């Protein structure tokens, strides 16, 4: 605890309080926390529930007002098409309409060729079987076969004689899909770029904590505790996965401008790459022999932390990021110092000296220094990506 207390230097605004990190990320949430967090308009599930409730009420209202056969298809279509995200709703909207229209016209043509009820029943059973196998792989084709099954079964009912079920199916599907589209687009909708920004912020914060926790060991400010370091690594991975899911929604959203996609893709690639670089440093700790920290290692850690904080603030305020700290200058000093030590080590090798402090030091920091260069490069790419994402 004293080590963590020493690590939280209040005079340095870029260092995080390690004890606070443990309090924030180390405790499990109470069982009611997920339920509580979903009972507000910031929750996508809560907004989806409101849309679904309102849409279902409208579907029932239309059903009662029309008072004609099979108008329940309106509400059924709305429930199936409406999704928590507009991008998913838009995809379902197109797939549902396209598959229903094709399936309806196929049944119209089929009924002109086959009128035997037994053969129609067989085709209907085969169609629903095929639909169930396709529903998770190609929804448009699944809807095509579902429509064939629904219309054939309805046609076998004698009470539907004389009713143009195929056209009714198309019209009701269009009404239900249109309701879902309008509700998803215009009612409590959150812009996908804002959702991606929030996910990227959380990913940056999680990777920053992961980086600090690993570097604290190299700096001698914290002991090597596998459980804590693995916990930070897993949290960073989960945050990266959430960000990549948000990226897919952003790309699938038809309202996303094309110039915004490329920097978002770059950012979602390089934040996880930064985390993987930290994992390399974590892996090197397994062979670390406790050499004293490099003279500029603490400064580099502070500069990386400052850079990640600035990137997070840029996304939070939707303003271009501030210029990065002089990471290249710090790294150049680190590399020059390391080169001097390598030359000294060559002299030791010439005198057949093994197991010296210099030998151990170079063994500890050769790969570490190489990875620090990569981390600096990735932060630079992230900086330009966020700048282009905000300006687009």
How would you describe what is shown here?
- The protein is mostly helical.
- 76% of the residues lie in helices and 0% in strands.
- The protein has 15 helices and no strands.
- The protein has helices at 2-7, 18-25, 33-37, 44-66, 72-81, 86-113, 117-134, 139-155, 165-186, 192-218, 226-252, 258-284, 297-317, 327-350, 357-391.
- Helix 6 (86-113) packs antiparallel against helix 9.
- The longest helix has 35 residues, at 357-391.
Attribute tags:
392 residues, mainly alpha, elongated
Q: In terms of topology, how is this protein built?
A:
Elements: H1 2-7, H2 18-25, H3 33-37, H4 44-66, H5 72-81, H6 86-113, H7 117-134, H8 139-155, H9 165-186, H10 192-218, H11 226-252, H12 258-284, H13 297-317, H14 327-350, H15 357-391
Helix pairs in contact: 4-5, 4-9, 5-9, 6-8, 6-9, 6-11, 7-8, 10-11, 10-12, 10-13, 11-12, 12-15, 13-14, 13-15, 14-15
Main sheet: strands, sense, barrel:
none
**Secondary structural class:** mainly alpha
Q: What's the end-to-end separation, in Å?
A: 46 Å
CA radius of gyration is: 30 Å
Tell me, what's the shape? elongated
Q: Can you give the mean pLDDT?
A: 82
Bin the strand percentage: under 5%
Low-confidence sequence ranges: 4-26
Q: What is the count of DSSP helices, taking H or I runs of 4+ residues?
A: 15
Quaternary state reads single chain
Share of helix, binned: over 70%
Task: Please count the beta strands (DSSP E, at least 2 residues each).
Answer: 0
The helix-strand sequence is HHHHHHHHHHHHHHH
């Amino acid at each position: 605890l004293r080590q963590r207390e020493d690590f939280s230097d209040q005079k340095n605004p870029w260092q995080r309080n390690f004890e606070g990190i443990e309090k924030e990320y180390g405790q499990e949430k109470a069982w009611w926390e997920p339920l509580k967090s979903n009972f507000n308009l910031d929750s996508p599930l809560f907004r989806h529930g409101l849309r679904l409730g309102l849409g279902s009420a409208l579907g029932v209202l239309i059903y009662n007002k029309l008072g004609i056969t099979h108008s329940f298809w309106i509400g059924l279509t709305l429930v199936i098409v409406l999704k928590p995200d507009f991008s998913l709703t838009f995809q379902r909207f197109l797939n549902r309409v396209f598959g229903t229209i094709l399936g309806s016209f196929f049944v119209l043509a089929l009924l002109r060729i086959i009128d035997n009820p037994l053969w129609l029943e067989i085709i209907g059973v085969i169609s629903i079987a095929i639909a169930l196998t396709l529903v998770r792989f190609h929804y448009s084709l699944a809807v095509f076969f579902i429509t064939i099954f629904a219309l054939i079964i309805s046609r076998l009912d004698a009470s539907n004689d004389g009713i143009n079920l195929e056209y009714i199916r198309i019209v009701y599907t269009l009404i239900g899909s249109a309701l879902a589209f309008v509700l998803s687009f215009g009612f409590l909708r959150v812009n996908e770029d804002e959702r991606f920004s929030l996910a990227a912020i959380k990913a940056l914060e999680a990777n920053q904590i992961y980086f600090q926790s690993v570097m604290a060991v190299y700096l001698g400010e914290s002991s090597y505790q596998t459980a804590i370091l693995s916990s930070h690594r897993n949290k960073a991975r989960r945050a990266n996965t959430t960000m990549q899911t948000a990226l897919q929604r952003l790309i699938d959203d038809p309202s996303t401008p094309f110039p915004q996609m490329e920097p978002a893709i770059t950012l979602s690639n390089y934040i996880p790459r930064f985390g993987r670089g930290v994992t390399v440093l974590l892996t090197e700790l397994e062979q670390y022999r406790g050499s004293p920290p490099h003279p500029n290692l603490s400064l580099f850690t502070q500069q990386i932390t400052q850079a990640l904080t600035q990137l997070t603030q840029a996304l939070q305020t939707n303003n271009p990021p501030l210029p990065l700290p002089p990471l290249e200058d710090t790294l150049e000093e680190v590399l020059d110092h390391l080169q001097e030590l390598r030359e000294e080590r060559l002299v030791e090798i010439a005198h057949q000296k093994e197991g010296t402090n210099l030998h151990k030091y170079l063994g500890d920091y050769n790969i570490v220094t190489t990875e620090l260069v990569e981390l600096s490069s990735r932060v630079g790419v992230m900086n330009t990506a966020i700048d282009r994402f905000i300006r687009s």
